[in-house]
Amino acid sequence: QGYETTLKAFDASLKKLGFDYVDLYLVHWPVKGKYKETYKALEKLYKDGYVRAIGVSNFQIHHLQDVLADCEIKPMVNQVEYHPRLTQKELLTFCRENGIQLEAWSPLMRGEILTEPTIVEIGKKYGKTPAQVVLRWDLQHSVVTIPKSVTPARIKENADIFDFSLTDEEMKQIDALNLNKRVGPDPDNFNF
Predict the structure, then answer these.
(1) Beta-carbon neighbour count of residue 60 at 10 Å?
(2) Number of alpha helices (DSSP H) and beta strands (DSSP E) in the chain
(3) pTM recorded for the entire structure
(4) Between these two residues, 191 and 65, which has the higher pLDDT value?
(5) Which of 77, 132, 76, 78 minimizes the C-alpha distance to 107?
(6) Burial class (CB in 10 A: 0-12, 13-18, 19+), 161
(7) Mean of the pLDDT values across residues 91-104?
């Protein structure tokens, strides 16, 4: 992190990739005292045409407010831990109101959510797996989702979520599973 360090790291990554540009580049963590200058470097890369979209990852509302206070280009994406046990409703609302796309990492809670009875029962109704139900829930909340898998069958299954819709009541049932439980580090209490 930091302005010059970020520019150098990006240049090295671009050379390793063998590309002329990348589609999305994110500040991974809100490292206190560094994330704003890191974001300034992303703005430069965007203005210079090396990045098509810029954003942040693991930023809470107060971090976003800090960046928005003096950025030239507002973050286009905020990638955060997001799943039925960590719905982050206030953050989702804030991002929507500010034109920032929320993107979910660990949407399946590292598999922990797949045995939740509410989700299992909803899946049975539609002939879908619990993973598909959760990914559909993300989609209906307008959250971009990144389910991690290396298994071709699971990758295909994860994409097969466009032939059904959850009802408003089912969305509320899944929303009600929130416990503000993280499986990853808390951005406000993490030793960077």
Answers:
(1) 18
(2) 8, 5
(3) 0.93
(4) 65
(5) 132
(6) buried
(7) 97
